[in-house]
Amino acid sequence: MTEHEIDEVTGQRTTGHEWDGIKELTSPIPRWWVYTFYVTVAWAIAFMIAMPAIPLVSDYTKGVLGYSQREAVRADIEAVRAAQGVFRDRIEQASLAEIRDIPDLFDFAVAGGKSAFSVNCSQCHGAGGAGAPGYPNLNDDAWIWGGKPDEILDTIRVGIRSDHPDTRFNQMPAFLADELLTRDQVSDVVEHVLQISGQAHDPAAAARGQPVFREQCSACHQESGKGIRELGGPNLTDAIWLYGGSREEIRRTVALSRNGVMPAWEDKLDEVTRKQLAIYVHALGGGE
């Protein structure tokens, strides 16, 4: 049987274990710590009885108080909606022009539009609407389908090349992939586009590309290359390029086509939210 000696300094009995001359004492846990532990156990049991706590296969224990965080959140949302109801009703009844002329209503619309934009639009257009290659910049003045508030609202509603029956739609041919032009003709058209957009180009190739452009491209871009808004034809004479304006990117566009898709939001967002989005997007600084 192990004999336990008494430590000379503390007067406590040792366990008989010793490491490098250090002897382990049998000092008991402080009473306050033990009582605190008992209180936490009692609190845990009481909480499990009173509140939702134990997960089950397809549900969870409800607790005698029947508290539900989901119901609390739902109640908070309903309270916020009730508080916003007056403004939302006014937005629903007003035109976009009227909303812009009423300061408090305009501020509410911009705030709501910013929130809706962050959730639904920023993934493609960026948090501030600056866009990215293939995703339009909403801060500038280049709007293929129109940048007035009502035009922006309609684009939000029906989308672009979406499954909406009234979607804004135009499709650029893949001139090389569809064998509408030869490689040499594509190269010449690219040089012509570089010329009309004020970039470095091969003059001889651009001259050869002009009649090809007039025959194949002017129906949507005009002979001048300034585009046709009603058809969604971009202006090729400015410095704004959705997919890039380098020789390589323009060649890729002409050869393989670009036909981006924007979803229609009519069935996803209510009319008031769509109006708020249109007001917010127009207020970013672009638009017309």
Task: Give the structure's gist in a few sentences.
The chain is mainly alpha-helical. Helices cover 48% and strands 3% of the residues. The chain has three domains: 1-67, no CATH class; 71-166 and 262-283, Cytochrome Bc1 Complex, Chain D, domain 2 (Orthogonal Bundle); 183-256, Cytochrome c-like domain (Cytochrome Bc1 Complex, Chain D, domain 2), CATH 1.10.760.10.
> What is the subunit arrangement here?
single chain
CATH superfamily of the largest domain: Cytochrome c-like domain
Mean pLDDT: 92
Strand content: under 5%
Globally, the shape reads: elongated
Q: Which fold name is given in CATH as the topology of the largest domain?
A: Cytochrome Bc1 Complex, Chain D, domain 2
Separate helix tally: 11
Count up the domains. 3
Low-confidence stretches: none
Q: Using only CA atoms, what is the Rg?
A: 35 Å
